[in-house]
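> example.struct
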């Protein structure tokens, strides 16, 4: 549960920064819209930008990459262990016989 709260906490902070910046841009859009006589184009663009930024933050799989990296590291460690075991085995010209011809 600690990872989920930390994960959503970072996403919440990113969302707060995005929308905090959007509010500042909305404050700038009011006088710019009046001077440029552009209508609601600037505020709509600010809202679309903040919305797409928020969607990008919440839809990216950040935790999955970390889990895949850990799984890949574990597999690499296992392969290295197997290589170490294989190289430490003695070389045989003929394979050793485990049983006699009588079955014992």
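> example.seq
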């Amino acid at each position: 549960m600690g990872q989920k709260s930390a994960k959503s906490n970072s996403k919440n902070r990113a969302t707060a920064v995005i929308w905090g910046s959007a509010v500042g841009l909305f404050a700038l859009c009011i006088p710019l819209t009046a001077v440029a006589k552009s209508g609601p184009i600037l505020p709509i663009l600010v809202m679309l930008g903040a919305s797409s930024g928020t969607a990008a933050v919440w839809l990216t799989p950040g935790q999955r990459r970390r889990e895949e990296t850990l799984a890949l590291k574990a597999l690499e460690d296992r392969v290295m262990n197997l290589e170490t075991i294989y190289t430490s085995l003695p070389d045989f010209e003929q394979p050793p016989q485990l049983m006699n011809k009588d079955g014992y």
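> remarks
The helical segments are 2-36, 41-59, 62-88.
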